[in-house]
Amino acid sequence: MKVVSQKTRISRKLAVNPSMLEEDRPDTIDISVIPGPRGLEDDKFPFEMLSDIAERESWRKEINRPLSHIHKWWAQRLGTVFRAMTIGALVPKGSNIIDLFYKPVRIKDAIVFDPFMGSGTTIGEALKLGARGIGRDINPVAYFLVKNALSIHDRPAILATFRDIERDVVSKVRPLYQATLPDGTVVDVLYYFWVKIVDCPACAESVDLFSSYIFARHAYPKKFPRAQAVCPTCGAINAVRNDAQKAYCHTCNRAFNPQIGPASRQKATCPACAHAFLIAKTIRATDRPPAHRLYAKLVLMPDGAKAYLPATDEDRALYAQTKETLNKFKNAYPIVPIEPGYNTNQALGYNYRYWHEMFNVRQLLGLSILADRIRQIPDTILCNLFTCLLSGALEFNNMFASYKGEGTGAVRHMFAHHILKPERTPLEANLWGTPKSSGSFSTLFEGRIKRSLDYAENPFELRLSNRSGKRISEKVFGLSEKIGFSIADSFSSFAAGKRVYLSCADSSATDLPEHSVDAVLTDPPFFDNVHYSQLADFFHVWQRHILGSNGYRQDYTTRSRNEVQSAEVNAFTDRLTAVWIEVHRILKDDGILAFTYHHSRPEGWRSVLHALMAAGFGITAAHPMKAEMSVAMPKHQAKEPINLDIIIVCRKRSQLQRHCWNGDLWETAMPIAAEQIRRLREGGRRLSRNDVRVIVMAQILRRLSVSHTVETALTLLDACSAETEALIEQLYTADKERTISNKMKE
């Protein structure tokens, strides 16, 4: 490591003052990549401390790393993890990673490549550290969002463009979300509340698919028990207790149980004839998407208060008028069929055959007005950025979104469950928005675009400390380079001197020369059922509608037969192997491949081992790390959630000494796994059984990956499956018992 100059301490001023003058910033630490073991290959790599920082980042990821969150992407990893990985992959073993994490490190002679770019976390962190970055992703939506995040942006021009859009469209869009109070006052509607309806197969009466008549409650109902319920008889809105079993409507005086509606799981019961029927089957029989009924709205009163009100005939008339207006537009929205797939079949089962059917006519009208205006922006970079903004607003402004309730961001976006799950009580948000809206075009401009501009101008890291017995975090500025680059569109352009090269294509065949990359840092797709491309098409069709079908947007879909992600184990293994083979070709002989991974099934680990060894890689280290978003909905729903990723560190097998493993788990895998569990536990982290599984499997793969042949390694892995399960159970039980014992001592 070559150090040019260094200040031994980062001042307190640096931690709290983002507007520091350049001369007040600490001197940068220039690091040269030299041959030999790296910091990521050190068993003392400080994963427990870094996990604490990553955990804090995950609580408000869109604030702490706004650049990688300017648009929706799935499985977004934490910047803290990849900053540490980048440093660790390029500095010598024995370096103080935590110390360097909070120093203005510059690794200017290094090239970092991410073949599964996703939301761009790897490239962003590498660039902040002064390295040069190459990102590639087969999905056009991922490529588009990263290119927008990392490009050079003219802040005054962006603000002026937003004001121009506001001037031209607000007078057209805002009236779509207004209501008249009984005294004649016109107010803004923040949200409209809808319910899916289906005709009873027995008596043909329309049935509301409410599972509960309570449609609005606080995120903390025990502390704030007040809720809102719709009367099933007259439609009046009533304030009730969240746990009330009986309520009287203040308008019609009818009693009802607000907790029980006609719909329960897969069935509904008709209130008119008591006939019970399967909801999905009944909807499919109609051969059209389900209809909706508008029943309530949340308005912004003149004094700034919010009020829940029932829907009126005027509201319904306004909605009908928007349909007439939309019919006058030509090419108002993309008309693209939804292709069958694991993540789209649930929507297809409800007769949603086209992407535009996921929006109601008011949403389509507002989106078409905004799309037409954005298309007229003459500057390509600005047009792309505002297209990205509108595309991001789509996930909050559709009939698959729902109401999170009071005390939250209000709108639960459509991908909260990682599938296209039809929502029985959808929420329609105000598309342009107000200062008290959530998920709108204007509020996302403030929360995503402007916040990202601030971060790009002055990036920061989080540092944890204790104050008055409480664990707090502070922002540390002045550590990283500003973000904003001219993006190369070919390696030749990159080789001519540009800092970043992004491409949208298959990573198993790149234009990169042999031995041209110092480190490959990535987060590959998992062997599972969440197909990003099937979900990304929701955004892609609108981006294509605005920007045209040239270049990487030629196809209507982002799906590709070459994408790695697959639920079929052989296909996943073959495609991942192909990418690792290409990585092996372009990686320098002394280079590092490191990636984050976790899985709960043996096939997932077997596949990774097979792909790595077949491509010529062996594992030199494996570190557990907090890397999944803490607030992810699928995690909360899991019985044994995985809270850890493993950083798997690899080198070319040609650089490693091979040997046969004797199969003794207790002699090889257990000591390191047990030590890593101990370090995490002493850091206050509780581990699930699947967390222990992740740690153990990584250490087993580490030993097996230096076997003489792939066949030998896979045979040994299969043969020790029963012993592996016993080891996992033993370590998990021992850790659980220690946790209980420590609590009793406290």
TrEMBL record:
InterPro entries: DNA_methylase_N4/N6, DNA_methylase_N6_adenine_CS, SAM-dependent_MTases_sf. The keyword Protein biosynthesis does not apply. Residues 98-141 form the DNA methylase N-4/N-6 domain. Keywords: Methyltransferase, Transferase. GO terms for biological process: methylation. The keyword Methyltransferase applies. One of its GO terms (molecular function) is N-methyltransferase activity. Belongs to the N(4)/N(6)-methyltransferase family. This is DNA methylase N-4/N-6 domain-containing protein.
